[in-house]
Design goal:
By secondary structure, the protein is of the alpha+beta class. The protein has four helices and six strands.
């Protein structure tokens, strides 16, 4: 996607205030290594990005996250990728990921990759840190 060809999105004062709140929540999620809060922030950011780079599959990806116990969804803000975030510390992680894949495929959303993002800066069992997210993501090749 050639993002330089996209018309710039105009944000109002309410949008800017919401972005500032999201940044504050993101800082807190990173400081607390909180995968649930990180998922909330990523999901809200994905929703707000729909104005700039719409992803028609976003509702299906959100539904799959809710239905499989994901902590939220993430999107490429300048491209066409979306994914589901999970807390690596949950004991039934593998089953949650499998359920997510089934839900996505059932809605016609292609699953291109399932991966774990390691981060040596994160204590085992925690969900996020400044250097990255420890957990699993189910990624789709959103059109």
């Amino acid at each position: 996607m050639d993002t330089l060809r996209l018309a710039p999105v105009r944000y109002g004062a309410a949008d800017l205030a919401a972005f500032e709140e999201l940044r504050a929540l993101l800082r807190r999620a990173v400081a607390e290594a909180g995968p649930v809060l990180l998922g909330r922030v990523a999901t809200e950011s994905a929703r707000r990005n729909q104005r700039a780079v719409p992803k028609p599959e976003l509702p299906a990806v959100e539904e799959a996250a809710r239905g499989s116990g994901g902590t939220g969804v993430q999107v490429a803000h300048s491209g066409n990728v979306a994914g589901v975030l999970f807390d690596a510390a949950v004991p039934d992680l593998a089953e949650r990921v499998r359920a997510c894949v089934r839900l996505l495929r059932g809605r016609g959303v292609p699953v291109t990759r399932v991966f774990r993002v390691p981060s040596p800066a994160v204590p085992v069992g925690r969900g996020c840190a400044a250097s990255g997210v420890r957990g699993r993501a189910v990624s789709d090749g959103a059109r």
